[in-house]
Amino acid sequence: xxxxxxxxxxxxxxxxxxxxxxxxxxxxxxxxxxxxxxxxxxxxxxxxxxxxxxxxxxxxxxxxxxxxxxxxxxxxxxxxxxxxxxxxxxxxxxxxxxxxxxxxxxxxxxxxxxxxxxxxxxxxxxxxxxxxxxxxxxxxxxxxxxxxxxxxxxxxxxxxxxxxxxxxxxxxxxxxxxxxxxxxxxxxxxxxxxxxxx
Length: 198
Prior knowledge:
- This protein is an all-alpha fold.
- The chain has helices at 2-21, 25-52, 54-60, 65-80, 82-98, 101-125, 129-153, 170-197.
- The radius of gyration is 18 Å and the shape is globular.
């Protein structure tokens, strides 16, 4: 799932950087909005696939008995909130390409610190177990996402969403995928290696 997030995030950020470097603000907006649509489409597919194929995936990973039940509890919460991770990673990449690396860093730090605090509260204090840990992860990612979203809706960003650009432009989407494919393969390979080692 994270590999899919890197596919769109890195691919779109690279194209937007090129457009901004060319002073083509309208072209940058077009890529930005199309990538947003692609994120929502791919994010929805990942979530659906995660729920549909959860049992086979856990079997492949070797989960059994009580461990499998806990893993399923964790994954259900993670997949339910996956869209925050995907859009947060996307906006973080775009913020850096726009020249706001501190904003992207602030989002990541907020996400990580809030995750740790909420982990303690949900697991140690409230006793919610693995579901509490998953919820803490999602809420941390959501906080990071909303920090970035505020930047883009407040007018501080030079990028704008245009309604007509929400309609997928296959040429632009193809270029986003082509540019982001190297990062996608690298991330996917690392994830598969970790899965096999586990």
